[in-house]
Write a structure and sequence with these properties.
Structural class: mainly alpha
Shape: rod-shaped
Number of domains: 1
Number of strands: 0
Strand content: under 5%
Length: 173
């Protein structure tokens, strides 16, 4: 009986020490895991910072390149028909967009939706301008009609989207 008392007296403090050490180690591990997660998140942000910045730059460049005025200045040829110019403008817009479609990974979903909407609205401007002309119209007539429609707008869809991207970029960085 005396041995049992000694064993109990020795076991109670030993169990208490084991419990305290175990609790301490669990909390220490939780802190270390939290610190590792924070460090991992910071490293991930550093790693993706440059590609994200490049994505925003590329998207702004895309929007500048599909701006109706920029397109016409770049692709206009007085010897083309309106239909030929329209086809070339639309093809160029789609090509520019397709070339930059992977950039959506690095920008917000709402920003990407605005980019898509800008592309569609630009296509719409060109198509509306072309529909108002007869089949024998020249590229000069189409260009003038596009410029006329653009002049009636307060802001181009591409300009609105560029502003949104700049605001988003400022919030992020």
């Amino acid at each position: 009986m005396e041995y049992i008392t000694y064993i109990i007296v020795a076991l109670v403090p030993a169990l208490a020490v084991i419990y305290i050490v175990n609790t301490f180690l669990k909390k220490q591990n939780e802190r270390e895991i939290t610190n590792l997660n924070v460090n991992l998140k910071m490293e991930r942000q550093k790693f993706f910072l440059e590609p994200r910045m490049e994505a925003y730059q590329r998207i702004v460049l895309l929007l500048e390149r599909i701006n109706p005025q920029s397109l016409i200045m770049r692709l206009h040829d007085a010897n083309k028909s309106a239909i030929m110019l329209q086809t070339e403008l639309l093809s160029n817009i789609r090509s520019e967009f397709d070339h930059n479609v992977a950039q959506q990974i690095f920008i917000s979903t709402s920003a990407w939706e605005m980019v898509k909407k800008s592309k569609e609205e630009t296509i719409k401007i060109i198509n509306v301008a072309a529909q108002t002309l007869d089949e024998k119209a020249t590229s000069i007539e189409l260009s003038n009609k596009v410029f006329e429609i653009v002049g009636e707008l307060d802001e181009l869809p591409t300009e609105i989207t560029i502003k949104l991207l700049k605001e988003e970029l400022q919030r992020l960085f």
